[in-house]
Write a structure and sequence with these properties.
Elements (H helix, E strand, L loop, with lengths): L1 E2 L16 E2 L12 E5 L6 E5 H6 L5 H7 L4 H10 L7 H16 L7 H20 L8 H23 L1
Antiparallel strand pairs: 1-2, 3-4
Helix pairs in contact: 4-5, 4-6
Length: 163
């Protein structure tokens, strides 16, 4: 799914989550959310679901594959079978990083409630990655938010250096 490019106000206090438009790409593997893996070494069958992937979402792809007992190629195959076009580690890391910068910078904003609302919406976006793995955060407002947080991060680091 692609975030609507025309909606620029999803960060307003009344908004719940980024607006979604139907994906132009066909949906893959809507049969189920579990992949069966049979080993040819006789270790039996394993089931890998989106929930088991969510547990290792904080790891890079290679480490996540090792944690699940898979090779990198088979891990990518499991992702495709579950309908995930790629491993979302970098996206999740980016969202978590934006949340932590906003947490650190709350004192710079006059209205702390709006900052909390943005943080909660970013966390909702993070959870949505595994419920809808084809989601893309590409709207203009999201890019502007990411750019603003990057600038805020440099302000915070300069504040720490100056004090």
């Amino acid at each position: 799914m692609y975030i609507c490019e025309t909606e620029l106000d999803w960060l307003s206090p009344g908004a719940i989550a980024p607006p979604i438009l139907p994906s132009p790409r066909p949906e893959k593997n809507r049969k189920g959310d579990i992949v069966r893996i049979r080993s040819h070494r006789g270790s039996g069958e394993r089931l890998i679901s989106r929930d088991s992937l969510r547990v290792v979402s904080h790891m890079p792809q290679q480490l996540a594959a090792e944690a699940l007992g898979l090779g990198n190629t088979r891990f990518k195959g499991v992702l495709r079978e579950l309908g995930m076009p790629h491993w979302p580690y970098r996206t999740i890391r980016s969202l978590r990083g934006m949340c932590s910068v906003l947490e650190q910078a709350k004192f710079l904003f006059p209205n702390e409630q709006s900052v909390r609302a943005i943080i909660s919406k970013l966390r909702v976006c993070e959870r949505r990655i595994f419920t809808d793995p084809t989601i893309r955060f590409s709207s203009r407002s999201f890019r502007e938010l990411r750019s603003g947080i990057y600038k805020l991060k440099s302000v915070i680091s300069n504040e720490c250096i100056l004090t």
